[in-house]
Structures are given as structure tokens and as C-alpha cells.
Write a structure and sequence with these properties.
It is built from eleven helices and nine strands. It is α/β, with parallel strands linked by helices and 268 residues long. It has one domain: TIM Barrel.
Length: 268
């Protein structure tokens, strides 16, 4: 039986306006509430869901997301990659749901088996992956891209303020779905102000793209609708994480916050 093709992430950027990308932690504070929060974010106007897989040794996550992951992992039965795929499958089965990108790390994928991860993710309706510790030019990445690409899964790579011009070209050429621009050096978390050099960084990333390269979305530190509107004026997508996860225990409050973000981003 042929494996169904994944939906990809591109339709999040097909509206002719900036896209709002919301990060939520799978299984936090429990499975039922995380599913309710996913649905609340979708109903409030999220164009793409970045669904975090709870992991014990994250590289890029700040305290809010680390704490949420620890709660999810410690829940009855634990929550990991298998459970996140099951949650994604239930979420994407709903009508008119936005595309989903899983944010995970390489070790859980290797333990699961790269071809199996790709096949099960495509079957679950996942559109792509963000793997911060998987560089675009490693042999392991080539194996993953072969498995994922054959099933229509996009893989998003990260561009940082410290990326050289050559690195930016590599990242933009390897990425599918979108290019993830990390706004500042460090880990995720809410910040009072956006970096002064962010607009220059986004311009550098856009300039590194060749014809047909994917859109550019900015994350790390975006905490308020005002900041989201600022980023929407310079990028194709705006990623908000910690400020959303902080509200994930209360799906109603989360939905209201996402609605405010969506208004700001889409107006931008």
C-alpha cells in the first residue's frame, strides 16, 4: 500500500500576507489540554502550528519550554515522539486545520528510525520538521532528507545572527517550507525588546536566497502583539513560542492571546 504524501508547510504562506506560526508543547500540561490548546490556536488564526516534542536535553529551548517539556515527560505514561505523533494525528484529522511542523531533536528520531519517523509523520498529517541539532550539510541529514522528501515532508533549517554568507546560502537552499531565522543568539524566551539588528539580519537571509527558495520566518523572543507586528513588516512569518506555552494550561486564555497575535501579524 502506497504511503500518503504529507501536506507540506507551504500553504501557511499562501494567503498573500505574513503568516503566524505558534509553538505549543505536546502533552503539556496533559494530553487533553494540549489538544484543546492546539485547537484553540487554530481557531484563533494560527497559520501554522509548530508542535514541540518533549525532550530531556534540548539545545535551543529556554526555561518556559524546558519546564513544559519536563511536565509532559513526567506525566502518566510519559510523552515523547510516539505520543506526539499520535496527538498530531488527532489534531490534523479535524476540518481545515493549519499545517503542523514537529520541532524535535535528532536522537529521538534516530532511536525511532528515520524512515519510520518520516512514514509515521506523513500518515499523521504532519507537514514538516524542525530539528535544531541537525545541520543541513551532514551525512545524517542527507539520509533524513531522502526519507522525508520522498513523502512530501518539508525540513526547516535555522539561520542565526552568527551565520556567514556561505552558511546562509546553504541553509536557504536546503530548507523547504520556510527558513527559520533565529532573532538572537541564545535560547528561546520572552524578551522586552527585539534586537536592533534584526531587520538587517532578515535582509541578509533574504539576499542569500536563490530563485524558488522558501519564505523567511523569524522566531526567538517575540512576546507581544506589538513585537509580532514589527516582525511581520520585515519577514514572511512570525514565530511565537514561550509566550504561548506560558498560557497553555488555559486554552481559553491561549486562544485570546493567539487572536491578538493573528490580528497584529495579518495586519502587518
Amino acid at each position: 500500500m502506497a504511503q500518503p504524501a504529507a501536506p507540506g508547510l507551504g500553504r501557511a504562506f499562501a494567503q498573500g500576507r505574513p503568516a503566524l506560526i505558534t509553538y505549543l508543547m505536546a502533552g503539556y500540561p496533559d494530553r487533553a489540554t494540549s489538544l484543546e490548546s492546539l485547537r484553540a490556536a487554530a481557531a484563533a488564526g494560527a497559520d501554522l502550528i509548530e508542535l514541540g516534542v518533549p525532550y530531556a536535553e534540548p539545545l535551543a529551548d529556554g526555561p518556559t519550554i524546558v519546564d513544559a517539556a519536563n511536565v509532559a515527560r513526567a506525566a502518566e505514561g510519559g510523552f515523547g515522539l510516539v505520543e506526539t505523533l499520535e496527538l498530531a494525528s488527532e489534531f490534523t484529522a479535524g476540518p481545515l486545520m493549519p499545517p503542523v511542523a514537529l520541532m524535535t531533536y535528532l536522537n529521538p528520531m534516530l532511536r525511532y528510525g528515520l524512515p519510520r519517523v518520516a512514514a509515521d509523520a506523513a500518515a499523521a498529517g504532519v507537514g514538516g520538521f524542525i530539528v535544531p541539532d541537525m545541520p543541513p550539510d551532514s551525512p545524517m541529514t542527507g539520509q533524513w532528507l531522502s526519507a522525508a522528501g520522498s513523502l512530501g515532508l518539508d525540513t526547516v533549517f535555522l539561520a542565526a545572527p552568527t551565520s556567514t554568507p556561505d552558511r546562509l546560502r546553504t541553509v536557504t537552499q536546503a530548507s523547504a517550507g520556510f527558513v527559520y531565522v533565529v532573532s538572537s543568539v541564545g535560547v528561546t524566551g520572552e524578551r522586552e525588546e527585539l534586537p536592533a539588528e534584526l531587520e538587517q539580519l532578515v535582509a541578509r537571509v533574504k539576499a542569500a536566497r536563490t530563485a524558488g527558495a522558501p519564505p523567511v520566518a523569524v522566531g526567538f523572543g517575540i512576546s507581544t502583539p506589538g513585537q509580532a507586528a514589527q516582525v511581520a513588516r520585515m519577514a514572511d512569518g512570525v514565530i511565537v513560542g514561550s509566550a504561548i506555552v506560558k498560557r497553555q494550561r488555559d486554552p481559553r486564555a491561549l486562544g485570546a492571546f493567539v487572536a491578538d497575535l493573528a490580528e497584529a501579524v495579518h495586519r502587518g
